[in-house]
Amino acid sequence: MKKYLVIMVVVALAFQVGCEPSMENQITLEKPEEALVEVSTEDKAIIDRSENLSDYIVELFGIDDTATIILNDTALVSVIMAYDKELTSDVKDLIRETVINMDTEIKEVLISGDEKVFFEIVDIVSSLMSGTPYDKHVGEIGKMMEKMNRRN
User: N or C: which end of the chain has fewer CB within 10 A?
Assistant: First the structure.
């Protein structure tokens, strides 16, 4: 009886070891390619500097939101003021001081309280973060600079 049991176990093991599933019947799970967008190091540095400036400016009293974009040594800053607050020359001076103190590479600060400009800057920064090269936005940023220079 023991021999019969041992033979059955050996035969069962032989079938288990000898059988391999065919590759046709196997389902293979492939890892999808990551859809990460590459942003060049220089563009990333400019975006980071812009975001850091926005973080500092929004902490100032009376400012609800801010968007900043940097072109060369000029920072374009657009702010949305808090309820019942106005973008006065004192507030502009405070923003200008904050930007120049926080980023030593900035020599000129253009400031706008226009929501349209705010959303244009937000769109540009979003586009840059999604991988669009900075060079594609230089013309648009240049036009905004001209408009803001006329208003300031």
Answer: N
